[in-house]
Design brief:
By secondary structure, the chain is mainly β. It is built from twelve helices and 38 strands. Helix 5 (492-503) links the parallel strand 25 and strand 26 (515-521).
Length: 781
């Protein structure tokens, strides 16, 4: 409908006949107008009526007037900027103009006593501000001067119109056709207001000084024009409840937006619900409430404030109880499930007044059902009761998105280890489940753990990387407005996450930790003997790599003694066991971390036949990660009520496990053989390895993924080969003393980071870094 188009006239009697605008005879309108003239008590009010759909049997029994609220708003915002060259040709003049117009009207609708009509009263507010700013600059040579002078001036003109009135007579009509469609129209009267303004100017650099001016224009009476607006006429009554109308309509044209919102009821009790709104807090300021839009929703774990507005249309004060429920009505799977009570609030509402009631709700778990299915929308229902009897209810949709996952990579890795996880999360829930790999946006935080396999350059310490993680967690929270997150950490990322939780992680006023769950994948919680084998020779050569050194069992023992606080965060660990002993580790392992080191003192642990480098894939997410972070409200409540396992909240005594025996330090940390080699792209090199009599032989090495290795025994037979990132070769047979050959081939070109490292070292040509060591069990005598 065009802006300000006239609506139907007031005073139409409720009837089941077609609307007078379509087929009703002219005398019906004349009769209605006669009623207006013969009812003086109604002439000062709003005449509002509506015909009920024929299909609704209950509608024929309800012919009273409508009660409720109608809200009208008109907003206009315009601006313009123009720059021209001044007459002198040496300067410019810029004119900026802006205008903001906001008109709002709230109309309270009440049935007239003993009549089929309703009365309406409007509260109207208007604010209109227009501002013009002119900035000029020019150049001139003043008398008795030889140099050019810069001059400038600024003038500001401002005009303002204000109006505020309450209890004004207004017109609202409702017409309904036999098909069930209806139209809501409003007619608002002229309003007395005031107009004011100001002019100011300032100058700089003029040959003859000019004084600044500031002039205020006194308030003057003015009149704000009357308004008219109607809904589209396409809204339909609900056959199940034809005596309630609610909806909204908006039109934008030529920069002007007009909107209408209504909530009406007839033949109800004195109490009714006018509105139900949701708010959450804007991170990082606690109690900084902001409205939640249905499209954006909130994040799992956020505190949500419900605000229900209750109106009393009766002549006496009423005591009411407002109950808030989560309802499953309309859900494909749980439609028959009864509504759950979230909370209730009592309130007294004076006659003819409205009051708000508020309730704070913890949304933890409401992105999921307890069986792990995604819950894409939550339906919240408010009910108002009068002396234990439900009088009215209202339901609104609230989208609750899952907590974001902050993904923490490990040694010789970067954010790209998690590159596929956003697609995994989208498939598992929706696009609202977001992955935040640390370092993807390095301006918000970037850990340095060696970047990629084969890089032995300087790295951050665990503590330094924990600071970068803290920055990235905070960025994640701001981006999603999430007060709580989940951490998923691979390998060394678990130690970095533990350090962050111990040293930095905050606890919020809701009593919950910032991190809801730490899920670790192959984390060496007691260190890795592979780090001993590779780091010890580097340290002896004066080229220590800090990230590697901090994974040695002796160093991690100290780390565990110093970083023991969990602050209520549940820990979970996935350990891999597909490989036989290696790196002096007598237990099964994932190629890097033995089972005892991964499980440590963590009660929630699981073992799978998976390699260390495969733990960031789809299968570990589905089988291990998702069941621990996709928790419905019932599951989360169970987790909060269960006591912590022994050793999980108190300080854990330092323990060291070497070769599967706790507390011993007899196992040697140095390898039998160690060598640091540089390979040029395309180069093949044979490395001679002395082998002793032993039960078996294990070779562990670190190299770029472009390096392949083949192990040849003293007879010339190939004993093993390795082409992947999990760089170990195990010969499970007895060996005799002799010289074996490790054949290394550097395929292709270096990665960009390795080339940058080579240039930084000013090497004559780029080289592939290769680091090897081996260990064996001595032969039995």
């Amino acid at each position: 409908m065009p802006i300000n188009s006239p609506g139907p006239r007031a005073g139409t009697r409720s009837t089941d006949r077609p609307t007078r605008r379509q087929t009703a005879p002219q005398h019906s309108e004349d009769f209605a107008m006669t009623i207006l003239r013969t009812l003086p008590s109604l002439a000062a009010g709003l005449m509002l009526s509506g015909t009920a759909p024929v299909a609704a049997a209950a509608a024929a029994q309800c012919e009273g007037g409508w009660s409720g609220t109608v809200e009208y708003a008109r907003h206009q915002a315009n601006s313009n900027s123009k720059t021209v060259t001044r007459v002198s040709g040496k300067g410019t003049q810029t004119t900026d103009w802006s205008m903001n117009y906001d008109y709002t009207a709230q109309i309270a609708v009440r049935p007239a006593p003993d009549a089929e009509y309703s009365l309406g009263r409007a509260n109207i507010n208007l604010s209109s501000v227009s501002t013009e700013t002119i900035n000029s600059n020019d150049q001139t040579i003043c008398p008795h001067e030889r140099t050019m002078r810069q001059m400038s001036g600024t003038s500001v003109s401002k005009s303002q119109t204000r109006a505020n009135a309450s209890g004004l007579e207004a017109g609202v009509d409702i017409t309904t056709d036999t098909g069930g469609t209806y139209t809501v129209s409003v007619r608002l009267p002229e309003v007395a207001g005031t107009a004011s303004g100001s002019n100011s100017a300032s100058f700089s650099g003029q040959c003859k000084r000019k004084e600044a001016t500031n002039q205020q224009i006194a308030d003057m009476p003015t009149t704000v024009e009357a308004m008219r607006f109607s809904s589209s006429g396409e809204d339909r009554t609900q056959p199940s409840d034809p005596n309630r109308l609610s909806g909204a309509h908006s039109v934008t044209s030529f920069g002007v937006t007009e909107s209408l919102r209504w909530n009406l009821r007839r033949c109800g009790g004195d109490l009714r619900l006018v509105d139900l709104e949701f708010e959450d807090m804007r991170f990082p300021t606690w109690d900084a409430w902001k409205a939640i839009t249905e499209q954006t929703g909130t994040i799992d774990g956020n505190i949500v404030r419900f605000t229900a507005t209750v109106a009393n249309d009766g002549p006496d004060e009423k005591a009411a109880t407002v109950k808030f429920r989560d309802t499953y009505k309309g859900d494909k799977w749980d439609g028959a499930r009864p509504d759950g009570l979230l909370g209730e609030v009592s309130i007294n509402v004076p006659a003819g007044a409205q009051r708000e009631v508020q309730f704070r709700w913890d949304s933890s778990g409401y992105a999921w059902f307890d069986d792990g299915r995604p819950r894409l929308v939550q339906r919240i229902k408010a009910e108002v009761e009068d002396r234990g009897k439900k009088i009215d209810d209202m339901t609104r949709n609230l989208k609750v998105a899952p907590k974001p996952l902050v993904l923490v990579h490990g040694l010789w890795s970067n954010w790209k280890a998690w590159e596929s996880w956003q697609n995994i999360l989208t498939t598992s829930h929706s696009y609202d489940w977001k992955a935040f790999p640390v370092g993807e946006r390095p301006e918000h935080g970037r850990m340095n753990t060696g970047e990629e396999m084969g890089n032995f350059g300087p790295t951050n310490t665990i503590a330094q990387n924990a600071i970068e993680l803290a920055n990235y967690v905070r960025y994640t929270q701001k981006d999603r407005n999430a007060w709580h997150v989940d951490l998923v950490a691979h390998s060394m990322g678990g130690l970095i996450s533990r350090r962050y939780i111990h040293a930095t992680m905050p606890i919020y006023p809701d009593g919950k930790p910032q991190v809801s769950h730490l899920v670790m994948l192959g984390t060496p919680n007691m260190g890795s003997r592979c780090a001993d084998l590779i780091s010890a020779p580097l340290e002896l050569a004066g080229r220590p790599m800090e990230a590697l050194r901090e994974l040695r069992p002796g160093v991690v023992e100290t780390f565990n003694a110093e970083n023991f606080e969990r602050k209520g965060v549940p820990f979970s660990i996935l350990a891999g066991n597909p490989l036989p002993p290696a790196c002096y580790m007598l237990s099964l392992n994932d190629g890097v971390v033995p089972l005892p080191s991964a499980k440590w003192t963590i009660t929630d642990n699981e073992t799978q036949a998976i390699l260390h480098t495969s733990m960031t894939g789809t299968e570990p997410f589905s089988s291990f990660v998702k069941p621990r972070v996709a928790l419905g409200p019932g599951k989360q409540a169970e987790g909060r009520s269960q006591p912590a396992a022994p050793g999980e909240t108190a300080r854990t005594p330092p323990r060291l496990m070497v070769l599967g025996v706790e507390g011993t330090e007899s196992a040697k940390a140095a390898p039998d053989f160690s060598k640091l080699i540089l390979l040029a792209p395309g180069q093949t090199l044979n490395v001679s390895i002395p082998v002793e009599d032993a039960q078996n032989l294990g070779l562990t090495f670190v190299a770029a993924n472009t390096v392949s290795a083949t192990l040849i025994d003293h007879t010339g037979a190939v004993s093993g080969a390795n082409l992947s990132d999990s760089r170990s070769i195990f010969v499970d047979r007895a060996t005799t003393k002799g010289s074996w050959i490790l054949r290394l081939t550097a395929h292709g070109r270096l990665s960009s980071s390795s080339r940058r490292a080579s240039r930084a070292r000013k090497a004559p040509r780029p080289r592939q870094i290769f680091r090897s060591s081996y260990c064996s069990l001595p032969a039995r005598r």
